[in-house]
């Protein structure tokens, strides 16, 4: 189930909790960690069961390690990007003083 569906479906949050959707970056980071764990577990299983000794097993190990490396690099990129200092907000343009559109009558003496 998609993490945003529970908020949009009108399911009430737990008592005392605010209804907030998870950010896309947070969800992708957690998904990356899950994929790294699954790929690592598959490599461990292939080695423990002895299937890594065959040619097919070696290709599965290489494929799993490549997937883990790809998601690992993405997770490192996300961590480094999150640790960067926030850029200051651009200063709004100063509005010049509006020209007076009211014409004053010359003073008669």
Please, could you describe this protein's structure?
The chain has helices at residues 5-8, 24-48, 55-83. With 109 residues, it is mainly α. It has a domain at 22-83. Helix 2 runs antiparallel to helix 3.
Class from secondary-structure proportions: mainly alpha
Percent of residues in helices comes to 40-55%
Determine the N-to-C terminus distance.
Answer: 84 Å
User: Count the helices. How many?
Assistant: 3
How many DSSP-defined strands? Answer: 0
Overall mean confidence score, pLDDT: 83
Query: Overall 3D geometry?
Result: elongated
The description of the largest β-sheet is: none
Spell out the helices and strands N to C.
Answer: HHH
- Low-confidence segments: none
Could you tell me the strand content as a percent range?
under 5%
- Specify Rg, calculated over alpha carbons: 29 Å
Write the layout of secondary structure elements.
Elements: H1 5-8, H2 24-48, H3 55-83
Helix pairs in contact: 2-3
Task: Name its key features.
109 residues; mainly alpha; 3 helices
How would you concisely characterize the structure shown here?
This protein is an all-alpha fold. The chain is built from 3 helices and no strands.
């Amino acid at each position: 189930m998609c993490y945003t569906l529970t908020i949009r479906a009108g399911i009430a949050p737990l008592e005392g909790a605010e209804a907030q959707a998870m950010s896309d970056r947070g969800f992708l980071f957690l998904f990356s960690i899950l994929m790294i764990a699954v790929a690592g577990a598959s490599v461990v299983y292939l080695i423990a069961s002895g299937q890594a000794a065959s040619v097919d097993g070696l290709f599965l190990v290489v494929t799993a390690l490549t997937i883990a490396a790809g998601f690992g690099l993405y997770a490192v990129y996300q961590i480094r990007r999150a640790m960067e200092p926030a850029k200051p907000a651009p200063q709004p343009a100063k509005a010049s003083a509006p020209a007076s559109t009211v014409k004053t009558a010359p003073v008669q003496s």
